[in-house]
Amino acid sequence: MAATRWSGTAAVAGLAAALLCLSGCQALGLPGAAPTTPHPNSAPAVDIAPPLDCSAFTATPAVEALLGAAAPLATTPADALATPAGRGPFGAQAAGGGWCRWGDDPAASSAATTAPVHLLSVQVLPRATASWQWQAVQYAQTAATGAHYDGGESRGGDCGRAASGAGSSCHTNVLVGDSWLAVDAVSSTSAIDEKAFHVLVQSFVPTVAAIDARDTTPAPVKPLSCGDAAWLKAVAGVYGPTSVAVLAPAATFGLPNALVGDPRVAVCAYRAASGDSSLIGTVSVLRGAAAAYATYHGLVVDRDPDASGGTIQLGSTELATLVRHTDASGSAPAETVIDALVGDAWIQFAAVSGSDDQAASVVQWVAGRL
User: Fold this and answer.
1) Which residues are 102's β-sheet partners?
2) Rounded Cα–Cα distance for residues 370 and 224 (Å)
3) Residue 176 has what DSSP assignment?
């Protein structure tokens, strides 16, 4: 569950990248992004409660008994700060599902600390049968049939011990009706009892079944194909490589790969198509995500004192952006992450190199495609 980090550029390279942004933005017919301000913009005034009734899944004592330590219910999935928005719990929320978290936040500590972690994560994604079946064939090596659960089919689960120390983890996926339930448990100080884990997951199945039964067909949205030629040309125009390609997702059975099958979620990781094929960054677009963005925004403001606000231009309208760098938590190397809410659509670009203005230019271009 550790985050993958990427290296930033040196000062001279950063200056060159800023100059490149000027020509890149002009090539796209876009003005350069406005400078950032010292403090983040105000959070949207919407309800930021977790999207699921987490108390309907389980009570905290049962989680603490499994993890062997205190594990209070969390109001934010803070580990999502290390995940592209469209591949984490906020993506599940935008797709009409949701998340629950109990326990410690592994993103709250820097990589240099050894603070214990005790975490139970639950995600639910509706209308996932087609992706479940497709992944079971495509990623058969990681989609082995798992433990038996009454009321659901299980795949891709396991439990394991840490190579050193007493830490352990368990995870599983269960298809309940048409909804994908993903459960992950981590304890860095004790061995999670596998039988107890399965018993707890079994207790979640009726709750997910009730959620699945209430699911309704969402209103249609305009599809966004971020791997199309126009998107590739736009990213290349900002960052300079001769050509850009989309990086295929990890070939692993799991809910993150199911998210991209929902029309309200678009995720593309871009890389240079020649030379060293280095990663440029990842764009996420989540429609119907005002509540998810409010939760994320509040989390960033709470956890990252160095986060700042900026603006992009959409026609005659100036839109606020949220700017953060992932080295602010003490870990390195870093990404530059720019977020904006356009109507109820959350746009994020997490760049592994270049300037803030370059990343903001990509967000601005995507905003014009909605």
Assistant:
1) 73, 120
2) 8
3) E
